[in-house]
Amino acid sequence: MKEESKSPIGKVVQFILHPVFLAFSVTIGLCVAYWQVASMQECRILGRFVCSQKFDLFWAASPNEMGDTLAGLAGVLVLVWVVASTFMQSRELKQARTEYSKMATALDAQAGIFADEMRQRQENEAGLYLQRLLEGLSEAIDRESREANVWGRENYDQKRKSFFASRKEETIDEYLLRNSGKVSMFWNERDGEFASGGMQLRAWYGYYEEISKILQKIGELAPKLGNDQQQRLENLRIQKLQLDIDDLVHNGPWSEQSHFAPMEVE
What we know:
Layout: H1 3-6, H2 8-16, H3 19-39, E1 41-45, E2 49-53, H4 54-60, H5 63-147, E3 151-153, H6 172-179, H7 182-195, E4 199-201, H8 207-221, H9 227-236, H10 238-251
């Protein structure tokens, strides 16, 4: 609302310019003007000089003449009020359009709020699911570090070897980050030994298939996560770990005795 309409002067001006007030004022003015005209005297010579008011002549006129006079007055008044009603309808339509526009803006804002709430709810649910997947991933990696015997020399010495390190007193993120580069580090350190055929990989359990499936689920979940959780995955280098594990499973120098038996999960 404008400051002018809030002030007393603005309210008075707004009242004066209202179509109903203007039409009422014009109606009063026309009635007063007609009354002034009707009160005027008209003098005629009818054998002698006679003066009378036009109002008296109106009453002495024939019905047709009286009807024509009233029709003229009524026609002017009807025209005034038709114009006033047109302006009133125009103002009401303008106010209705303004209200509809405000309602549409409010509905759009409300729809945006609902969409944000829905997206936030989905991101929260995805974040909780991600936490469960990361816990399962850390457990699978820790189990591989404690139970696996996946590589050694041709004589398959009995010394247990695994790709990943066991978990210590640390958070899930710290543990996963510490192990994210273990596979590629292993290849960099022992690439020559595998190339010469002096060392091969062996596996008796499906550790890496299990880890690969969990990493695949995390990859499918990533687009549904919020920016903070996506940044978390990037910091943990999960994508690199998935590439390393997939390469290990499909392209690793496994011996003929190697096999991937499914994990028995209670």
